[in-house]
């Protein structure tokens, strides 16, 4: 779900541009705006980038943060995983032979990583972004539900914190939009209510907080983690090990199966007839994100 932080009177700026009787002024608000988008090669960010470029040709630059070894590799990923995909076919038809030059003017690949301070962006480019960007969209995250806790925390929680810290340097920032995840927990039935917490309850018992001893600060013990992994392997027989690896392979096959079914390549497959599958169109999510700009 997207959440927004409005800065420097963006509401007033957006409201002042509502002149079009056929809309509420989103297109006018986005005109000439410069964006910084993290997770640009991800599922939702690509949808958002395409929608912005298709509906707002007068948009400024979109700086797309891409994890890569250098600028050339980032450009290659941008071409292969974003602008060269089926999703951008409509945009290609609109611009025709000018498509490549249009994309080059609008999209700027940025070598970066949300696990680094200032996203690991080289200082000169980081200064340019801080001077030019009006809107930040943080869509980077780890969607592996079986990820190690410290890795998931570093990317999904501390990553957002680092982007917020980087945003403090921006001169003309009007909006910070955070997209938390593309998935929700669908295993529980009925109405699922959030557990209410009193102020401080969520961290008061955490190691390293002001209520715990300074000697209990949580630290990673890599040596013991490696030893634990080797011990687990040594105490399991080969059949169990192969079964676990097979299960891992099946988990990795879920995405291609769903994709193949959506494209009509797989006409049917066995499953639980009572299973409820809730699917929300990515186009609807992209539209919600655009509304969040206003």
Please tell me about this protein's structure.
By secondary structure, the protein is of the alpha/beta class. It has 2 domains: 196 residues, Rossmann fold; 41 residues, no CATH class. The protein has 12 helices and 6 strands. Helix 3 crosses helix 12. The chain is globular and about 55 Å long. The N terminus is likely disordered.
Helix content: 40-55%
Beta-strand content: 5-15%
Total beta strands: 6
Number of helices: 12
| Rg value | 22 Å
Describe the main β-sheet briefly: 6 strands, mixed
Order of helices and strands: EHHEHEHHHEHEHEHHHH
> What strand order characterises the main sheet?
1-6-5-2-3-4
Class of secondary structure makeup: alpha/beta
CATH superfamily of the largest domain: NAD(P)-binding Rossmann-like Domain
What average pLDDT do the residues reach? 75
Shape annotation = globular
CATH topology of the largest domain: Rossmann fold
Whole-number count of domains: 2
CATH architectural designation of the largest domain: 3-Layer(aba) Sandwich
Q: Give the N-terminus to C-terminus distance in angstroms.
A: 16 Å
Give the C-level CATH assignment of the largest domain: Alpha Beta
What low-confidence regions span 5 or more consecutive residues with pLDDT below 50? Answer: 3-22, 207-219
Summarize the helices and strands and which ones pair or pack:
Layout: E1 2-6, H1 10-16, H2 26-30, E2 35-38, H3 43-55, E3 62-66, H4 71-83, H5 89-95, H6 99-106, E4 107-111, H7 123-132, E5 135-138, H8 149-167, E6 175-179, H9 201-204, H10 222-234, H11 238-262, H12 282-293
Parallel strand pairs: 2-3, 2-5, 3-4, 5-6
Antiparallel strand pairs: 1-6
Helix pairs in contact: 3-12
């Amino acid at each position: 779900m997207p959440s927004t932080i409005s800065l420097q009177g963006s509401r007033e700026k957006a409201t002042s541009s509502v002149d079009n009787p056929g809309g509420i002024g989103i297109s006018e608000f986005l005109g000439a705006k410069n964006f910084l988008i993290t997770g640009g090669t991800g599922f939702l960010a690509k949808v958002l980038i395409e929608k912005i470029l298709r509906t707002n040709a007068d948009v400024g630059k979109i700086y797309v943060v891409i994890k890569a070894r250098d600028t050339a590799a980032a450009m290659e990923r941008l071409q292969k995983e974003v602008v060269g995909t089926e999703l951008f076919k409509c945009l290609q038809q609109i611009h025709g032979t000018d498509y490549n030059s249009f994309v080059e003017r609008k999209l700027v690949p940025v070598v970066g990583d949300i696990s680094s301070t200032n996203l690991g962006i080289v200082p000169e480019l980081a200064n340019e972004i801080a001077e030019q960007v009006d809107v930040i969209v943080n869509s980077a995250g780890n969607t592996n539900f079986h990820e190690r806790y410290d890795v998931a925390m570093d990317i999904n929680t501390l990553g957002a914190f680092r982007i917020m810290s980087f945003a403090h340097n921006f001169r003309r920032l009007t909006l910070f939009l955070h997209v938390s995840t593309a998935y929700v927990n669908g295993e529980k039935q009925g109405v699922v209510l959030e557990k209410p917490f009193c102020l401080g309850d969520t961290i008061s018992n955490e190691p390293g907080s002001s209520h715990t001893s300074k000697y209990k600060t949580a630290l990673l013990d890599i040596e013991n983690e490696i030893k634990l992994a080797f011990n687990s392997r040594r105490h399991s027989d080969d059949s169990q090990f192969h079964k676990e690896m097979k299960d891992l392979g099946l988990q990795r096959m879920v995405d291609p199966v769903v994709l193949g079914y959506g494209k009509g390549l797989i006409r049917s497959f066995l499953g639980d007839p009572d299973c409820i599958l809730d699917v929300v169109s990515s186009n609807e999510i992209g539209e919600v994100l655009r509304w969040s700009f206003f």
